[in-house]
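Subject: design request, 735 residues
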């Protein structure tokens, strides 16, 4: 007889597939609405077809509407700051320095490499961006003004502090330039590396040596801001002591904020050095400066551990009225005025009077203070940056930070934790997380301006972007679970918790975790890197519309987004996707940092990238159903077959009746069979079955003690929303 198969909403991966009878156990690109699973909406890439692949990894996204009703998206990658408006990307990245050179280019026949020589130290590192213009001439070269004017280049190498190299799209076909005319070079502010690296951890140090921890010593001789070693020459640096420093393989030390690799140890010398690796910035270091090894040299089979983190290049983005406020993580803060008639032709400029090194920033509303977190105790002195220190501007004045009796500027240091991780605006207070606790920052006016209160412990934020607020409730990921705060602290019950936290790469990816809100469907999503990945490639989602205290609704998947912004400004959610393996950005010559795509979500059924349509593959799988025989009240030994049994009987499936509330194109149905819990599943011999919107029933023959259902689409132009399936089953004996 036909029997309905019903499932509880959400994914449960905390139990076995046999235990999860009547539940879903796995999915990808699926959401739940009104208790039923459906394929998620599609997405289209934004921007013109030849100007839409952004340079580097997207690490900041903010939407706002200015006083002229113009909609803007501010996008920060680890290399460039963009403004998006009217379907066009505009480069608004701030300029750090400008240099005019003459006779600076050297080329070689048959090579794409150009060496540029400066008269003084250029202060650049590999990966930095520079803009060239005002080019006059170059001799003995096939390259001309059009190859350099108004072009951005990525620095490839810095052989010395006065020379650097760039790579052209083609080889030099001339005899080779030895002289050139004038050119202006504008250096972009450095943001940081594309990905996060942990100083200790799998794959970062050497294998098979003696166990050693975080050994510290000091420099025996100064290091200059160049590529050389001690004394300004050679490829080695001299330490006071090299005891327990790894001596084989490629290893790393940290001096200040600079990472240096080395390949050997000779006496008290580290040999084979390379300056400014892992996305760090080269700088000068005085004799006696602290040197800390950032490789963990362990015995075979031993896991490394440590706490040295090289955080990715990130942005904090907000707006103060018409002005976009843009903070480089652990760096300075800039503003960009969108109200100017030529706004898209201007660049962000540094905010005078503001701190020059901060971890995070936001604008408080409605009181309108610019607030910095993990910032300097002495403004303008980055060495005084305190990871637990908060500083806020005078009300309505983003240039004034010194407290007086007549203004509302001020400071506060939090007590619980070692580092402020992030902050967001709540309904009536700013919520501030450290690595261990949650605080509220509430505007109270003069003389105190803000009142601070600790409202949670053991609930720290995993990373800067891992929190969102909606309808007066904040949701976030900690290193040990998911939490909610709406006046009181709550731990979110999660039926995919082990799946997430057993496979998330927090050792080198906590700052890669990013939260997103899709208020159209009541979803809070967290995007994260799985174990073994340095880039975001997984997603976990909580549905606050469909969840109840007894049944939280969670889904999982492979949707990879580095940043997400809700639909409030543009009507649809927007998100960034980073492709680390492809360097063809539209605006930087010689890009090696990968590229970022900017998408509009919940449109159509497929992915549209550069005009190429590809299928979004969605699937959902159930736990196992088994069968028993319902016995009558008259004591009969036989009766009607009953799903949700105990596996006593083998079941025989003769047909199923599909039920889709909405369906576009075909959908594929698989009956996965097994006889015992530890057996591997095998698909029905006649399946998988293709189901269209006109399919009334599907005849089949299948026998097993347990059956699981899988629904999926395999091609483009397909979407589906599941109703209630019916199976025609009967008992078929015990053997």
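Subject: RE: design request

Done. Sequence follows.
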């Amino acid at each position: 007889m036909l029997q309905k198969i019903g499932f509880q909403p959400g994914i449960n991966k905390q139990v076995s597939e046999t235990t999860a009878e009547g539940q879903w156990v796995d999915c990808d690109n699926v959401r739940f609405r009104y208790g039923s699973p459906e394929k998620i909406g599609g997405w289209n890439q934004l921007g013109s077809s030849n100007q839409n692949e952004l340079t580097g990894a997207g690490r900041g996204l903010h939407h706002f509407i200015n006083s002229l009703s113009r909609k803007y998206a501010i996008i920060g990658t680890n290399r460039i700051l963009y403004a998006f408006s009217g379907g066009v990307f505009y480069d608004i990245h701030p300029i750090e320095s400008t240099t005019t050179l003459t006779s600076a280019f050297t080329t070689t026949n048959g090579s794409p490499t150009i060496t540029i020589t400066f008269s003084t130290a250029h202060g650049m590192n590999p990966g930095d961006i520079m803009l060239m213009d005002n080019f006059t001439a170059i001799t003995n070269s096939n390259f001309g003004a059009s190859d350099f004017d108004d072009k951005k280049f990525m620095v490839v190498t810095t052989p010395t502090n006065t020379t650097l190299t760039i790579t052209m799209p083609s080889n030099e076909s001339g005899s080779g330039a030895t002289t050139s005319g004038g050119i202006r070079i504008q250096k972009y502010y450095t943001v940081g590396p594309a990905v996060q690296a942990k100083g200790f951890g799998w794959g970062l140090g050497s294998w098979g040596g003696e166990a050693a921890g975080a050994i510290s010593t000091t420099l025996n001789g100064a290091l200059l801001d160049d590529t050389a070693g001690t004394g300004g020459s050679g490829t080695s640096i001299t330490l006071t002591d090299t005891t327990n420093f790894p001596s084989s393989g490629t290893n790393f030390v940290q001096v200040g904020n600079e990472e240096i690799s080395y390949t050997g140890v000779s006496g008290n010398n580290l040999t084979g050095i390379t300056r400014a690796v892992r996305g760090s910035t080269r700088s000068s270091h005085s004799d006696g400066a602290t040197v800390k090894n950032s490789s963990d040299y362990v015995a075979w089979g031993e896991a490394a551990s440590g706490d040295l983190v090289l955080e990715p290049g990130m942005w904090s983005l907000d707006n103060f009225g018409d002005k976009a406020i843009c903070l480089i993580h652990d760096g300075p803060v800039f503003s960009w005025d969108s109200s100017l008639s030529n706004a898209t032709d201007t660049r962000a400029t540094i905010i005078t009077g503001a701190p020059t090194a901060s971890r995070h920033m936001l604008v408080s509303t409605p009181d309108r203070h610019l607030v910095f977190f993990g910032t300097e105790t002495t403004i303008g002195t980055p060495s005084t940056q305190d990871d637990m220190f908060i500083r806020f501007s005078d009300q309505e004045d983003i240039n004034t930070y010194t407290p007086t009796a007549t203004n509302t500027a001020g400071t506060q240091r939090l007590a619980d934790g070692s580092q402020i991780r992030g902050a967001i605006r709540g309904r009536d207070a700013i919520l501030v997380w450290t690595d261990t606790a949650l605080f509220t920052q509430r505007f109270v006016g003069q003389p105190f301006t803000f009142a601070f209160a600790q409202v949670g412990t053991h609930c720290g934020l995993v990373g800067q972007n891992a929190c969102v607020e909606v309808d007066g409730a904040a949701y976030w990921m900690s290193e040990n679970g998911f939490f909610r705060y709406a006046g009181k602290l709550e731990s979110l019950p999660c039926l995919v918790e082990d799946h997430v936290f057993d496979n998330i790469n927090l050792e080198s990816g906590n700052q890669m975790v990013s939260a997103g809100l899709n208020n159209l469907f009541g979803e809070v999503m967290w995007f994260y890197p799985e174990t073994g990945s340095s880039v975001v490639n997984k997603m976990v989602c909580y549905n606050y519309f469909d969840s109840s205290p007894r049944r939280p609704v969670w889904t999982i998947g492979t949707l990879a987004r580095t940043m997400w912004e809700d639909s409030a400004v543009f009507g649809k959610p927007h998100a960034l996707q980073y492709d680390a393996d492809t360097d063809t950005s539209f605006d930087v010559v010689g890009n090696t940092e990968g590229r970022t795509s900017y998408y509009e979500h919940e449109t159509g059924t497929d992915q549209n990238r550069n005009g190429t349509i590809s299928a979004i593959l969605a699937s959902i799988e159930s736990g196992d159903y088994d069968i028993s025989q319902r016995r009558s009240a008259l004591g009969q030994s036989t009766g009607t077959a009953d799903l949700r049994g105990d596996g006593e009987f083998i079941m025989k499936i003769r047909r199923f009746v599909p039920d889709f509330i909405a369906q576009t194109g075909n959908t594929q149905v698989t009956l996965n069979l097994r006889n015992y819990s530890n057996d591997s599943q095998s698909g029905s011999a006649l399946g998988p079955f293709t189901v269209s919107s006109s399919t009334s029933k599907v005849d089949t023959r299948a026998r097993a003690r347990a059956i699981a259902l899988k629904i999926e689409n395999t091609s483009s132009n397909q979407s589906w929303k599941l109703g209630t399936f019916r199976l025609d089953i009967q008992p078929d004996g015990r053997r």
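The chain is about 0% helix and 40% strand.
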